[in-house]
């Protein structure tokens, strides 16, 4: 029995955590500390905070992976969720490892917008597209993150003659097409943008740089 208890403890999953980007939500964990734990299989359950019964996640029942997609199970974005994982090896089951509480609306990370640029002779036109959630409208198109939050676009310009880190904010607001004017012909400019949420004072990461020479 003692050996079984030792094995149970040594294969128990560690660091069970939700990771979420634009409501694409996955559960991650690390294997137990035993060397043989890398051969363990894992079983995932989830529930809404306050519910008494745990639900099995069928696609993550007896898997060797250390990640489980719970996007569909956490689609009520205002609800707080828990998940838990246990491991099995050689007929021995570990106890459950519990995640922290996770509320998608509060905790998902908002990604950067998609940016495309076109240039005139003294101006750059910037087209912005908000990141999209995994959730779909009845007609099948995915719902943008701007439906769930009051989000602003922030557009920054980098003059490549200056140093890379010198980003100047040239626009903040909700317009999807922004014109940056009074630029110098023959100079290389780069544009980056991010999403900003005033209510929680959160910013996304910067978008990929889009560069152009006027």
In words, what does this structure look like?
GO terms for molecular function: cytokine receptor activity. It is found in: Secreted. Receptor for IL22. Binds to IL22, prevents interaction with the functional IL-22R complex and blocks the activity of IL22 (in vitro). May play an important role as an IL22 antagonist in the regulation of inflammatory responses. It holds the Pfam family Tissue_fac. The protein is mostly beta strands. It has two domains: 1-106, Immunoglobulins (Immunoglobulin-like, Sandwich); 114-213, Sandwich (Immunoglobulin-like), CATH 2.60.40. It contains two helices and 18 strands. The chain has helices at residues 2-11, 104-107, and strands spanning 14-21, 24-30, 41-48, 55-63, 67-69, 81-89, 92-93, 97-98, 114-119, 124-129, 132-136, 142-144, 152-159, 167-173, 177-180, 188-197, 202-203, 210-213. The mean pLDDT is 93.
Number of domains: 2
Largest sheet: 5 strands, antiparallel
Please state the average pLDDT score: 93
Overall geometry comes to elongated
Helix content: under 10%
CATH fold label of the largest domain: Immunoglobulin-like
Question: CATH class of the largest domain, please?
Answer: Mainly Beta
- Supply the helix-strand structural class: mainly beta
**Would you identify the CATH architecture of the largest domain?**
Sandwich
Q: Strand content of the residues, in percent?
A: over 45%
The H/E string reads HEEEEEEEEHEEEEEEEEEE
How many β-strands, per DSSP?
18
Instruction: Give the end-to-end Cα distance, rounded to a whole number of Å.
Output: 75 Å
Computed Rg: 23 Å
Number of discrete helical segments: 2
- Low-confidence segments, given as residue ranges, are none
Domain Interferon/interleukin receptor: 108-212
InterPro entries: FN3_dom (IPR003961), FN3_sf (IPR036116), Ig-like_fold (IPR013783), Interferon/interleukin_rcp_dom (IPR015373), Type-II_Cytokine-TF_Rcpt (IPR050650)
Keywords: Disulfide bond, Receptor, Repeat, Secreted, Signal
Subcellular location: Secreted
């Amino acid at each position: 029995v003692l050996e079984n208890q030792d094995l149970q403890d040594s294969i128990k999953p560690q660091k069970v955590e939700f990771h979420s980007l634009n409501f694409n939500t996955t559960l991650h964990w690390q294997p137990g500390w035993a060397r043989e734990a890398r051969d363990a299989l894992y079983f995932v359950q989830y529930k809404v905070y306050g519910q008494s019964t745990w639900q099995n996640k069928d696609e993550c029942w007896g898997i060797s992976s250390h990640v489980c997609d719970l996007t569909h199970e956490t689609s009520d974005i205002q609800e707080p969720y828990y998940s838990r994982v246990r491991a099995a090896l050689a007929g021995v089951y570990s106890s459950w490892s519990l995640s922290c509480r996770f509320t998608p609306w509060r905790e998902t990370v908002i990604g950067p917008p998609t940016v495309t640029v076109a240039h005139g002779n003294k101006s750059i036109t910037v087209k912005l597209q908000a990141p999209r959630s995994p959730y779909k409208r009845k007609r099948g198109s995915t719902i943008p993150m701007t439906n769930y939050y009051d989000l602003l676009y922030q557009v920054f310009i980098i003059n490549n003659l200056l140093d890379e880190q010198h980003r100047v904010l040239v626009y903040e607001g909700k317009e999807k097409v922004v014109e940056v004017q009074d630029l110098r012909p023959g100079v290389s400019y780069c544009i980056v943008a991010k999403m900003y949420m005033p209510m929680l004072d959160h910013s996304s990461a910067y978008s990929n740089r889009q560069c152009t020479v006027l």
